[in-house]
Design brief:
The structure holds 2 protein chains of 2 kinds. By secondary structure, chain A is mainly β. Chain A has one helix spanning 43-54, and strands spanning 6-14, 26-32, 64-65, 68-69, 73-77, 80-81, 97-102. The longest helix of chain A has 12 residues, at 43-54. The model of chain A has no long low-confidence stretch (mean pLDDT 90). By secondary structure, chain B is α/β, with parallel strands linked by helices. Chain B has a domain at 50-279: Rossmann fold (3-Layer(aba) Sandwich), CATH 3.40.50. Chain B contains 20 helices and 10 strands. In chain B, helix 2 links the parallel strand 3 and strand 4 (83-90). In chain B, helix 2 (62-77) packs across helix 9 (215-224). In chain B, 51% of the residues are buried. The model of chain B is unreliable at 283-366 and 399-427 (pLDDT under 50). The chains are: A mainly beta, B alpha/beta. At the A-B interface, strand 6 and strand 7 of A face strand 1, helix 2, helix 9 and helix 10 of B.
Chain lengths: 107, 427
């Protein structure tokens, strides 16, 4: 059984991605600290959660492609490129700021 | 896990991993190295001269905003002595361009730069909204691209400016190289790799100072410098082929981040192998270019290309936008397809079309030479420039075109159909 304990994080979308998320740039989320298997949640878990629970837009492929964040979307964990933090395997900490920036949209 | 430290200052926490070499950098060192690499590009290619008045093609998007910010910074830091002006095009797309123009207006204040906005309506008598109303969404990018390129030239001329810089980045260049490769279009591939297009004989030169800058780093630079930019997708449909090339580039980058710059470098190397007769590029071809007297007095002052690869043919920006159009018009095809025997072998499948039947073997060579449009007087390698041709269609053949655009095909061939219909109707 999943833990009932929640952690709060901030998730932001910019670079055009906000339009997939109700045109809201900043989302304050309260998410369970553990996933259904009892393991600490990761950014990979968050991406799935965002797709299933937060995104109302049906164009999921504009955010996730083949089970990964769509190439061309940058992910910053507390301002750091997620490539420096283990990408999807990064374990979320309370008050983390996760920013998704699309580079795919023109001006 | 312990945070990685910056590879340069070795004190601050690394926030950026550079796609070109995997180097881990802190915010401050990243911003500095990003700017200095662009400085290096500018100085190595002798892009500017002191006293130059430069128009920055500004859309309000990330690339042109970063370009404006970096050029302002470098101009002050390295005493370029440039007079920088923002030049924006209003295509007349409600809910898209009017919002981004607000961003440009803020940028003009933030960067203390003059701003000039030129609209399609004043230049052509058509807004893109009206164009789309007439021809539908399919193929409208061709119109927009042709119009925009000329609009930038005209805006620059209105300002008395002979050099326009645009925010095209390494990803854009790689994408264009790939597209030209996939089309077997070596002349265009060669031209699209040049950092500068146009030479001393051109009214307006174009350059891409961000040519070697990764889109990823441009976005990160904008993020870390907290630049004010606008991002949205044009509300009208994007070009399908370019979209696929873009997706491919981004997927390659994920697996091998250096791939983007590698493609740019490969493109440059391939360009060197393409004979001058094919590309229309020469080291100094002013004698080949005839300009009308009205234009002739305003020749650019840039010498014949700083890196020996400046294009005397059409400009790369135009090339990017014009690919479908090229296939659409008989005149264009004529020029594009007639290539010396070295390249003929790669071309049969494209030549199969109606237009391509034209004695492709009959003529030895047609090089693109720059002249002026007989209608509007702007630079064109054809008698009538593409903008005027498109306008003519818009103005005369609305009903015909409305029927033609329903054909479910790639934009290029759809446009060709339209143009064929147009020719029939006109004849």
């Amino acid at each position: 059984m999943a833990s009932t304990e929640d952690i709060s994080i901030i998730v932001e979308f910019t670079g055009g991605l906000e339009m997939l998320f109700s045109d809201e740039r900043k989302h304050k989320l309260s998410v369970p600290a553990k996933d259904s298997k009892g393991e600490a949640i990761t950014v990979g878990w968050l991406v799935e959660y965002l797709c299933e629970e937060v995104m109302k837009d049906t164009r999921k492929e504009m955010f996730v492609l083949d089970g990964h964040v769509r190439p061309g979307i940058l992910v910053l964990i507390n301002d750091a490129d997620w490539e420096l933090e283990g990408e999807a395997t990064y374990t979320l900490q309370p008050n983390d700021n996760i920013l998704f920036v699309s580079t795919l949209h023109g001006g | 896990m312990a945070p990685a430290l910056c590879a340069i200052c070795e004190t601050a926490r690394a926030l950026v991993k550079r796609p070109k070499n995997g180097q881990k950098l802190c915010k401050g060192c990243f911003i500095t190295i990003f700017e200095e690499e662009i400085h290096h590009t500018i100085t190595a290619t002798k892009l500017f001269s002191p006293g130059d008045r430069i128009a920055i093609g500004a859309s309000g998007g990330k690339d042109s905003t970063v370009l404006a910010s970096v050029l302002k910074t470098l101009n002050e830091r390295h005493n370029y002595g440039l007079d920088l002006v923002l030049l924006s095009i209003d295509e007349g797309i409600k809910g898209y361009r009017d919002d981004s123009l607000e961003t440009v207006k803020r940028n003009a204040v933030q960067y203390d730069m003059e701003l000039k906005i030129v609209g399609y309506d004043e230049l052509y008598g058509w807004t893109m909204d009206q164009v789309v109303e007439t021809i539908g969404k399919k193929g409208n990018c061709t119109y927009c691209g042709v119009f925009r390129r000329q609009a930038l030239d005209r805006g620059a001329k209105m300002l008395g400016i002979k050099h326009v810089v645009t925010g095209h980045n390494a990803d854009d260049v790689a994408e264009t190289i790939l597209m030209n490769l996939l089309r077997g279009d070596l002349p265009r591939l060669a031209r699209s790799t040049s950092i500068v297009t146009g030479d001393e004989s051109s009214d307006v030169r174009r350059s891409k100072p961000l040519k070697y800058a990764y889109e990823k780093e441009i976005v990160l630079y904008a993020f870390h410098k907290k630049l004010d930019y606008f991002s949205t997708e044009c509300i009208y449909s994007p070009e399908a082929f370019r979209g696929s090339a873009r997706t491919l580039i981004k997927s390659l980058e994920r697996i091998r981040p250096s791939a983007i710059l590698d493609i740019v470098r490969s493109g440059e190397d391939m360009a060197k192998l393409v004979p001058e007769e094919v590309t229309g590029i020469s080291h100094c071809k002013s004698q080949k270019v005839s300009l009308s007297s009205a234009d002739g007095g305003e020749e650019g002052a840039g010498g014949c290309g700083s890196n020996g690869r400046s294009s005397g043919g059409e400009m790369a920006e135009m090339e990017k936008k014009l690919q479908e159009d090229e296939e659409a018009s008989g005149r264009e095809v004529d020029v594009a397809l007639i290539v010396p025997s070295t390249a003929n072998g790669q071309r049969h499948d494209r030549i199969g079309g109606k237009n391509g039947v034209k004695k492709e073997t009959g003529r030895k060579l047609t090089r693109q030479t720059l002249g002026t449009c007989k209608k509007c007087g702007y630079m064109s390698s054809q008698d009538i420039c593409k903008a005027c041709m498109l306008l003519e269609g818009l103005n005369k053949n609305r009903p015909k075109m409305e029927i033609e655009i329903d054909v479910e095909e790639e934009e290029g061939s759809t446009l060709r159909r339209r143009m064929e219909g147009l020719a029939l109707a006109a004849g």
